[in-house]
User: Fold Transcriptional regulator, TetR family from Herbiconiux ginsengi.
Amino acid sequence: MSSVIEKKSRMAADERRVLVLDAASTVFGNAGYAGATTDMVARAAGVSQPYVVRMFGTKEQLFLEVLHRALERIMSAFREAIAGDPEVPVARRLGNAYFTLTADRSILLNLMHAFVLGADPVIGVQARCGFMDVYRLLREEAGMSAEEASEFLAGGMLANVVLGMRLFDDYATDPAVRELLGAVFPEKLELIRKGHPPLPASTPPRVT
Assistant:
């Protein structure tokens, strides 16, 4: 009987851990590492701030968990794509897999937050390790040349930037934006537009 109770307790703890990580991914993605707090994560997850600290320790450790989970999702999606239809070029399979992942904005936003923290003695190291893990996967598992892997990563980073800054919000009003996005997403433009609808228009600040 006690083993059943312990198993249920572990399952509940695992579920709460996932709940907190989901909330942390959203909070860090929206507020950035510097702007986010464990209290904000706790409120988003519906738990207490001390509970978040007991589970993950520091804000830094919580962000690292979020970063590692995002990287694991990318690596898993890429490996699944590599094992996919050999009639489709591997770069296209990988690109499709990545653009599917971008439907979750927290993944790309937290990657960008980590990359700009390159000078941080802890987060910067983990960001570099994760980035190079992706590069090694492209070289060793996808069979890309160094030039092909570099081009693929460059395209992915450009996609991150235009999605992170919500460039699609100006799609309807700026011809240059439409031109650029059409070049960045030549095959997935309409699909990605649907996944990234513009924010409601806000009133511009009054100049006095």
Observations:
- The radius of gyration is 20 Å.
- Residues 2-164 form a domain with the Tetracycline Repressor; domain 2 fold (CATH 1.10.357.10).
